[in-house]
Amino acid sequence: MLIILATILGCRNHSNVVAEHITWSHYGGSPDQSKFFESPSITKSNVEQMELLWSYPSGDDRFYFFSPIIVDSTMYVLGKNSSLIAINAKTGEELWIHADLPGITRRGINYWESEDKKSKRLLFTLNNSIQAIDAVTGKSVMDFGNNGYVDLREGLDRDPTSITRIQPMMPGVIYENLLILGSAPGEAYFSPPGHVRAYNVVTGKMEWIFHTIPHPGEYGYETWPKDAYKYVGGANVWSEISVDTERGIAFLPIGSPTYDYYGADRLGSNLFANSLVALDAKTGERLWHYQTVHHDLWDYDLSPAPQLLTVDKDGKKVDAVAIATKHGFVFVFDRVTGEPLFPIEEKPFPKSEMPGEESWPTQPITSLPSFTRHEVTKENLNPYFSDSLRQDWLKRLDSAKTGLYVPPSDKYETIMMPGALGGANYGNTAADPRNGMMYIMTQEYASTYRLSKVEPPKNELTENDVDKVKSLYGSSCIACHGSNMEGGAGPSLKNLGHHMYYEEFRNTVINGKGVMPGLVHVDEASLKALFRYIGGDPERRSFRRSNQQAESVDGPVVASGGVTIPPDLKRGAPMQDYPEGVEQPEDQYTTDYGLDWPGLIDPPWSSIVAYDLNEGTIKWRRPIGIDSLYAQGGETKGAPNGTQRKGMVITSTGIVFATAKGGKVYALDAENGDVLWETTLSHETNAQPSMFTLDGKEYLVINATSNFRSDSYDHSKKPGAVAKGYLVYGIPDKK
Description:
By secondary structure, the chain is mainly β. Helices cover about 10% and strands about 25% of the residues. A hairpin with a 3-residue loop joins strand 34 and strand 35.
């Protein structure tokens, strides 16, 4: 009976693999985020015939990180000054344009259709809201949520007005009639919590919430200080959520808690931060979890998509889930039970010497081979460094500490390999679900950290600047805002800079707002000085473009701007201190991400690694990308920071399509990593590639809308260059 049942389940699994991977209606192709595609007509023997068949220009000079989705014969892209555009996937003809959506989810959108296919929707986040657009007409769905939108600041057990940002850069994932959504709440002290929520795609109602920072009485609450859920933030899913649709299990790769590098106010192991969590996708109930980093002090988020595949383990077929990490490890579990398929050992690591900090004494190390190095040494420094630069680094290494899980310090520099950007990062994993093969994009990119105490804000204005501000304020502002900035005919300006971004302040002053006239005569230096004077930081940039003026768009525009949302939904006054009654550390410490040295160690700097998870071995490794800084294009060196914002597609015919720095697109043999075909784009790509089938023919889509960072590698200036846009490759029809 068991043999018969196993056979039936095996057949069901294979048919589901085929059914899920013949379209590209999700960010990663399908809900499992495998980037796997059934592509029978593009094979190893004919892939070298691939050509650019047509392209759709993005129509502006912006960078887009958007990954197209394709449903039936329609492709959805972002272009023309942040407009959502439906185009004919065979010809590139525009079908409709919903214009002016600055602040929309950066990397993609979701598609949902009803069982009878009468209702078809595109769901996305926009300026801290969820909105829906009719996929056929391009117009906003006004009966979704509250007059067409859902306020993402609500339902987090924090004051909604204290949440300045919450929407994710990734689109989330559709499962049945649910949109399962993570968040990107920021990484500062008192950032909002990253609880994962599911919303009804028809009504907008929140159907369930999973507290990634547990509340009293919930599993894991004791792994934090009392009441930590009231002030600790992060522990969020800002990347790809994978779903086993047959079993109804959602797999969450959860990120670090705030503050990332100093955790004196969050002593404990901190579940469910840095954990792979399996949930019942219908209810949000936790099924099992595994924490890959305890009490994270290194920003080692789980950011790549969990990969769902079937492995042959000890002669048995096991449906598994595998997660790759920023710090170079692969953890593999039974998808249903959460049992590790390869041994994991808790090993001791150095203790933090920071006041108030208690680093966790051990960390889990898997028996699978690591795909990155973990130390910067004098021997593995970049051989292309000049003599003087090399000598500088030899001295730095003498006084710094480096190695896996070395805690950050304010007394010396710590050099972490990999750093905040990995290793593997979002979009950097893919799999062939049928045969236990997992593919990982990885980079050898160190971070240099040194903690410093958080001090009260300092007035950085010179005496001359203060005189300018007082003169400007006295001549143009005092009549409405009062002699002490406390308001009068106009609102108070006290500490206004804490609550808004400089670009919004600048636009308001120059262009006016309401009854306030525009002050077009004010120079930039005076504007920045005034903004600092009211508590702002001109260098703190908004993650959205919600204040840009709408620009005219040519083409079949059917709507503009999405639905109207309250102005305060786009911004808030962030939480500034611990809640009353909470025991708090004496000091706070911070550091930057230390990303100044992407090529600190010797090459290869970026690679694709193929893991055989049946055997637990690395089958092959292939350097990718073109370096314009050190090796000047050496094909065997990879590229510093060469895999960030890049992606792959794995085909059923054994091809790995991959993008890499320098505008490179490869077709690699999935068996051994050999290059079968490659091309160089006219513009850089910073998005996940897609594939689709139309009239029995397969196509590869690349978003190439970014600029190159080196003039010597700027292919947009070469003869025959293609305009920024979405490029569609395939094998041309025989004439």
